[in-house]
Design goal:
Layout: H1 7-10, H2 14-28, H3 31-39, H4 55-77, E1 83-85, H5 89-100, H6 105-125, H7 127-134, H8 137-158, E2 162-165, E3 169-172, H9 178-195, H10 201-215, H11 241-245, H12 253-281, H13 292-309, E4 314-316, H14 320-325, H15 331-344, H16 356-370, H17 382-398, H18 401-418, H19 427-442
Antiparallel strand pairs: 1-4, 2-3
Helix pairs in contact: 2-15, 3-4, 4-13, 4-15, 6-12, 6-13, 8-12, 8-16, 8-17, 8-18, 9-10, 9-16, 10-16, 12-18, 17-18, 18-19
């Protein structure tokens, strides 16, 4: 086991990997609650019954898709990266595809399935890996730093330290709110442990914050330990309904837009996450991502699995950086996260203690660690500084990893050509320029 996961080469051990995998799980466990709420449209009353997906079935599908993706990523690609249905993509699925376009959720699942199958083909052909390795190092560093700022913003927002403000868009929240104070306590505690060099400081910070929260009734006590596993029957296999019974419903411009959107966002969200996590863990080799093809294949298979089970696109999670910060370096950590996802099917009541105020300090601290890649960017060369800056700033401001990448990548060929460095731009980057331009025009 140690030899397969290269523990000695990576300077890790079972303890670090288990703590890292557990930290990643705790940082992303919210998806087991949020994804069913989002896809079921339970917050939108008055809709016809056929528009609502079964919440319990979505929960089970979410856990299974996350487990399959994480286990495959850990065993096949041997990266400490966990997978789960992506935030943003689930909202697009529910509120745009189903609610706005009026496409039945069964057909929307077909769209996810189609995008996943296309991704498998692209991954096996090596096209996805080639594209990722064609991205210049400056932009790879920018992607890592941008994601760091993005997840820090997520942590600040989820904990209500930063709130919406009609006058200036965002502003400081109510620091007297007990729940906000709990996050601040967890943040200070985690910072102290990280400065002291305590291994697993992020994990211990989350654990102690949760205990303090329960002691002061700020975090709900679990109502039980073991619960029954909801049936997946209402959604399982629904992605095939339109293919078998009504294939003409798939021959529309709207359905094509849906599939292309799932394709685009998942591709570049995954690429960005793989690059940033590998950078943080020190796994990049000469600016390239080893075993990228296997990592992308794991991501693709997880998407297909999730679509068949009954959930939106499954993708690599930026919260994996929390596990890396806690010490994870190998795929064993992802295996740990995958096993915990399976166990969560039976221990769902316990997950109630993992609130956003408990996980927020971890996300904020991880952002601090990830922006260190800024030092690798040549800021004195304006032609590379501009696209890198736009990648970094656009991610948190547009609330999208893929959009941030798109904006920066649109500027890169332009600035390099004007600077007379046209031969240094990989031909694939020109192709991506056209793809991103079409993305903004049509999608």
């Amino acid at each position: 086991m140690k030899k397969y996961f290269r523990f000695e080469e990576l300077g890790t051990n079972y303890r670090r990997e288990i703590i890292g995998g557990l930290t990643t799980f705790l940082a992303m466990a919210y998806i087991l609650v949020v994804n069913p709420m989002t896809l079921s449209l339970e917050t939108v009353p008055g809709l016809p019954d056929f528009m609502y997906m079964d919440k319990g079935s979505i929960f089970t599908a979410t856990a299974i898709a996350s487990a399959v993706g994480s286990l495959m990523m850990g065993i096949l690609a041997r990266y400490p990266i966990a997978l789960a249905p992506g935030m943003g993509l689930n909202a697009f699925f529910a509120y745009t595809v189903v609610l706005t376009y009026g496409i039945p959720w069964q057909v929307a699942l077909t769209g996810v399935l189609c995008s996943g199958i296309i991704f498998i083909i692209l991954s096996l052909s090596g096209i996805r890996e080639t594209i990722i390795n064609a991205i210049p190092n400056e932009l790879k560093y920018a992607v890592g730093a941008g994601i760091g700022l993005f997840i820090t913003f997520l942590g600040l927002q989820n904990s209500k330290i930063i709130v919406s403000n009609d006058a200036v868009i965002v502003g400081l929240g109510d620091l007297g709110n007990p729940h906000v104070l709990l996050t601040i306590f967890g943040l200070v505690l985690t910072v102290i442990m990280m400065v002291k060099g305590i291994k697993g400081g992020i994990f211990y910070g989350m654990l102690i914050t949760a205990i303090i929260g329960m002691a002061f009734s700020l975090v709900p006590l679990p109502k039980g330990i073991v619960g029954s596993v909801p049936s997946m029957a209402p959604t399982f296999g629904a992605a095939f309904d339109a293919i078998v019974n009504n294939p003409s419903s798939l021959l529309t411009t709207q359905f094509l837009v849906v599939v292309l959107t799932f394709l685009f966002v998942d591709f570049f969200d995954t690429a960005g996450t793989l690059i940033s996590v590998a950078n943080q863990a020190g796994l990049m080799k000469e600016g390239k991502l080893p075993r990228a093809g296997k990592a992308l294949l794991a991501d693709s298979i997880a998407t297909v699995t999730g679509a068949i089970a009954g959930t939106s696109t499954t993708t690599s999670y930026v919260e994996s950086t929390a596990g890396v910060a806690a010490g994870a370096r190998s795929g064993f950590a992802a295996v740990v996260t995958g096993v915990l996802m399976l166990l969560s099917l039976f221990f769902y009541p316990v997950l109630s203690v993992i609130t956003s105020n408990v996980t927020a300090p971890a996300l904020i601290i991880v952002g601090v660690l990830m922006v260190s890649s800024l030092g690798n960017i040549e800021w004195t060369k304006f032609e590379t500084a501009v696209p890198a800056f736009f990648v970094i700033i656009a991610m948190p401001l547009t609330y999208s990893i893929a959009t941030g990448i798109a904006i920066g990548f649109l500027f890169y060929p332009i600035t390099m050509i004007v600077a007379g460095r046209i031969k240094e731009v990989h031909p694939i980057m020109y192709g991506l320029w056209i793809v991103f331009l079409c993305y903004f025009i049509f999608l």
